[in-house]
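2024-03-11 09:14:02 INFO worker-7 job=invfold-0412 stage=load source=structure_tokens
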């Protein structure tokens, strides 16, 4: 290990080099290539779903980590907190989803504790607080989520202390997060919204959930991470929107054997999803958490069609609204 002074000198050099380097080519704008033409936001019902992040652990610069916002009657119900969630919420607001104000990011339903679904948790706990959220963040999730929230609060103790007791004119409540570990069933009822957690089989996880959101207007089901599951079929039953994870069945064939073993026990292929969707009969199937492995949105849609699903289906990009 080099001495501290050498390491600091290297750090200073690295920063300088970065600062002097020509700027990299601009990355494509988020959601620049939606798989289908989006309806104008105003044409959608009041109860709708906004894709804040459609990504996976793969660091695709156009796809933030998994996070979905269900919006109804002026309220925001987040599902998962992948990397980039707060900035994607700000982008969606700029794009016309006016409900996605920072103070409104106050309720999240966590599907499971895989890091791609939760690394945005400290962002969601603390950034909207600094941006005037006064409500504590309500966190609903499987066993283990309370310990995660507690540890994150402890990890940011110095920041919380400075903002509460330094010169910053902060509110004294919005930094708190109140976690509730739930079992499958109705986990929230209020403001005309009912939220139901249902168990999904996701490899070795003991507790992994999908969530169904129901108002008097629409029913929206989010699969979370899962293999093909009868639970999803039972929860959807002709629902308005089924947001479901997927991987390319064709590209899967070229994956190494140990990864094939993993994916087949943790995730859903296009062919399997076609079977699920035929039985679940959503008015709209929305693909997210897509594992492409070199394939494209068009390939995923073609694979689903060839497997016999004839209903409406789109492969979502970040900031898609349905
Ligand atoms: Zn995942
Ligand atoms: Zn997962």
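2024-03-11 09:14:09 INFO worker-7 stage=emit residues=322
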């Amino acid at each position: 290990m080099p001495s501290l002074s050498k390491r600091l000198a290297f750090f200073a050099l690295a920063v300088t080099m970065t600062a002097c380097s020509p700027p990299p080519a601009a990355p494509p704008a988020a959601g620049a290539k939606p798989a289908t033409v989006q309806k104008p936001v105003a044409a959608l019902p009041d109860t709708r779903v906004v894709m804040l992040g459609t990504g996976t652990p793969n660091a695709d610069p156009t796809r933030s980590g998994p996070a979905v916002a269900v919006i109804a009657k002026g309220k925001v119900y987040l599902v998962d907190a992948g990397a980039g969630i707060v900035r994607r919420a700000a982008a969606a607001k700029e794009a016309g989803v006016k409900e996605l104000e920072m103070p409104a990011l106050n309720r999240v339903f966590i599907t499971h504790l895989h890091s791609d679904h939760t690394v945005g948790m400290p962002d969601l706990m603390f950034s909207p607080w600094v941006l005037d959220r006064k409500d504590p963040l309500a966190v609903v999730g499987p066993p283990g989520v309370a310990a995660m929230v507690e540890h994150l609060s402890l990890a940011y103790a110095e920041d919380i202390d400075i903002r509460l007791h330094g010169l910053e004119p902060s509110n004294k409540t919005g930094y708190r997060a109140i976690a509730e570990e739930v079992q499958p069933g109705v986990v929230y009822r209020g403001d005309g919204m009912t939220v139901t957690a249902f168990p999904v089989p996701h490899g070795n996880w003991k507790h992994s959930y999908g969530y169904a959101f129901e108002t008097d207007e629409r029913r929206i089901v989010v699969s979370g991470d899962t293999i093909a599951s009868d639970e999803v079929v039972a929860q959807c039953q002709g629902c308005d929107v089924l947001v479901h994870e997927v991987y390319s069945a064709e590209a899967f064939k070229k994956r190494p054997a140990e990864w094939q073993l993993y994916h087949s026990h943790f995730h859903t292929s296009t062919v399997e999803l076609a079977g699920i969707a035929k039985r679940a009969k959503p008015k709209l199937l929305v693909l997210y958490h897509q594992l492409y492995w070199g394939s494209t949105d068009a390939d995923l849609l073609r694979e689903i069609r060839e497997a016999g699903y004839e209903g409406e289906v789109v492969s979502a990009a970040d900031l898609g609204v349905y």
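2024-03-11 09:14:09 INFO worker-7 stage=report msg="The longest strand covers residues 284-291."
2024-03-11 09:14:10 INFO worker-7 job finished
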